[in-house]
Write a structure and sequence with these properties.
It contains eight helices and nine strands. The chain is of the alpha+beta class.
Length: about 280
């Protein structure tokens, strides 16, 4: 019986490129964590894979089949199942609490559908994992062998560490000074003044120090009020129907005794029904 790796190795290059796209973060698929035979695995829903193949990110991938409809996406995903990149599973109860991974079991009927789940058997490219492991080992060896470093390198590391500690101390000192200054200005000149108001905001490094100071005034959100408008193009017959058979006309008040000129009043005039 052929192993999983042997089956995946028989896949055409285009199919492998599709699977690599789905396994990468560029696809935007929602990955869930489950438990298969006591081992943690990643699984996804078929609908999520179809959306990924119809996304603009997939259209930019080279050497992959063109997908324009959901039917084409489902056919391509069904083809990938034959090479054991992922398999259809049934999702069961959680392994522990409600937030724990759920049990998944492989089903005999391997037919793709959007409303079912599939477990990943393809791990994808592992070069980042290997590179990270090698880098971690190299850093640990370099730290252990620090006494054997040349004096120039050790002196440079010492200066660098002092500079980092000085920068960190300056940041905390600035935060304390701006707080003290704010408390003083609240008492003297309410509502208070913040120095570098964007210091802790989610902005860039340069934007954190602009502006230099600012009053502590909460910004009000301007609410938009929608006013009801009369329907445009209403003819006199529609106005009569809406007003219960009465025609309402606004006329200017010509009385000189009114204190405000141009005051408008309403005159109600009964008109006979057209249909009577």
């Amino acid at each position: 019986m052929a192993s999983k790796d042997d089956t995946q190795a028989k896949a055409p290059p285009e199919t492998r490129n599709v699977v690599q796209f789905l396994r990468s973060s560029k696809s935007g698929m929602k990955i869930r964590v489950g438990a298969l035979n006591g081992k943690r695995v990643d699984y996804f829903k078929g609908k999520s894979a179809v959306k990924a193949l119809l996304s603009p990110a997939y259209a930019k991938v080279k050497n992959v089949p063109k997908v324009t409809t959901e039917a084409e996406a489902e056919a391509l995903l069904q083809l990938s199942i034959q090479y054991a990149f992922y398999l259809r599973v049934d999702r069961g109860a959680a392994t522990g609490s409600s937030t724990s991974p759920r049990h998944v079991t492989v089903v005999p009927q391997q037919q793709f559908a959007q409303d079912v789940y599939f477990v990943w058997l393809y791990e994808g490219s592992q070069w980042t994992t290997y590179a990270g492991g090698l880098l971690m080992v190299a850093l640990m060896l370099a730290a252990v062998m620090f006494p054997l470093w040349p004096p120039v390198m050790r002196l440079g590391v010492w200066y660098l560490s002092i500079a980092m500690l000085g920068l960190l101390g300056a940041f905390f000192g600035l935060a304390i000074i701006r707080l003290i200054f704010y408390i003083i200005t609240v008492v003297i000149a309410s509502p208070g003044i913040w120095i570098f108001p964007q210091l802790f905001a989610d902005v860039g490094v340069i934007e954190s120090f602009v502006p230099f100071w600012e009053w502590d005034v909460q910004k009000k959100k301007a609410g938009k009020k929608k006013k009801a408008k009369a329907p445009a193009g209403a003819n006199p017959e529609e106005q009569l129907a809406n007003n219960g058979g009465a025609f309402i006309e606004e006329v200017g008040d010509e009385s000189p005794e009114q204190s405000r000129p141009g005051t408008r009043s309403a005159r109600v005039e009964e008109v006979p029904d057209v249909d009577s």
